[in-house]
Structures are given as C-alpha cells and as structure tokens.
Amino acid sequence: MAVKIEKKIKGYSVVTPEDKAKESAKAEVAARKVEELPSADVIQMHERIERPEILVGSTYKIKSPLFEHALYVTINDIVLNAGTEHELRRPFEIFINSKNMDHFQWIVALTRIMSAVFRKGGDVTFLVDEMKAVFDPRGGYFKAGGVYMPSLVAELGAIVEDHLKSIGLLHDPEMSDAQRALIAEKRRAYEDRSKKNSDVSHAVAESSAAGAAETIEVTGEGVSFPPSATLCHKCSAKALVIMDGCATCLNCGYSKCG
Question: Following DSSP, what letter does each residue of 151-198 receive, concatenated?
C-alpha cells in the first residue's frame, strides 16, 4: 500500500522489536493501574455522607499545667464499607470538654473546623503538622514521659496523631536494626559510666547522697531517662545527656558529634 508524503522529510527512525516491547509493557502497566482503581461501589469519605446514629470513638485526657482542670478529647470515627475487603475507619468529628470554660470560644471553633475537615475527606493527616507547629508565646511544658509540648494546641495535634496511627492513617517510620542497636549501645555505655561514678562516689563519701549516680530504669511504661537529661530537638524527648564530651540522645540516638 502506497502512502503519499506531502511534507518534506526532516528525519526518520526505525521501529525495532525492543521499541515494540517497551510500548507493550507501558500498556500493560497502564491497564494494571486502571484495574487497581477502586470500583464504583466502594464508598469514599466525602462531606455528603450522613452521620450514622452510632459512631465508634476514643476519648483522651490532657492534664496540662496551663489549665487547672483536665481536658477530655473525644474523636469519633465512621466505618466505611463495613464487612467488605474495602472496610475503612475514618475520623468524622471531634469534641473537647472541660470544667474550665475560659477558652470555650476557641475550643468550639477549633473542634468545628477540624470536624469539617474530617468530613471533607481526602488526606486529613496535614492537621497533625499544622497543630504541632503552634507555639505558646508564654512557653511550653513537659508532658508525662518528658516529651516537650510547645503549646496546648500542639498536644491536641499529638493526640490526633496518635488516633490516626491507631486507625491506620499514619504510620511510624521504621527504625533500622542498626539504629536500634546504636541506641541500646549508648544506653548501656551511659549506665556503665554512671555505675562507675557511683562506685567512686561511695568510696569517697559513702554517706553522701549526692554521690548517687543517675541510672536508666525500665518501667512498665517504657524507658525513663536521667533527671539531668535535657531536651532533644530531634525527638522532643528529655533524654539528651553528655557522653564523652558530646551531647547524645538516649531516646532516638541523635548525636551532635555525628
């Protein structure tokens, strides 16, 4: 079959079998992606979904030194596609209750805005970073476990983060075996050094309470760090100690000396 060429030929290329194989592979990948898309009968989170009569929820307690009374944060979830392989649990609404009514207005505004974002659907995990980046001009505080909170809103963001992790929307970054081994080695080295200092102190002044060394104890809630430890800017835990003249974190393994 003859083909009439009406334009001037400026160049040409020969289609090889390898080129045909590449085009075929691209077509297969595109078809596979189309097959993996959720089918039309899968319900996704959007603002037109009506609130069911019963929602599954969790309540968290905040005891902050900034408030005389505790705050109770309740996050309710909606279950989509229940009983199917596409079952999803997504946050639907949030409430904050307390005996302290001094900040009632901004608490109500915050919960309504967050609930609206939850019902909108899509990626709601950005709320965590936005809230945890809020700093109180009067200064933050340390919560139980030695974790620094720059503000009350930041602690609310930490609660939302914990909740999203519990329902599978967020995941902790995997720590490599080498990093775990490094942290364990740092803790052992600090504990051994503390024991040696303790023995020397007892030999010099057996009756002196100041000679007692700081040790790392494993409790039912995890690892507790020495009272003299300072705040680690990387993991926000009060676990930064001086080892061999270098600031080292006993929680995440961060070292100022590398």
Answer: SHHHHHHHHHHHHHHHTTS--PPPPPHHHHHHHHHHHHHHHHHHHHHH
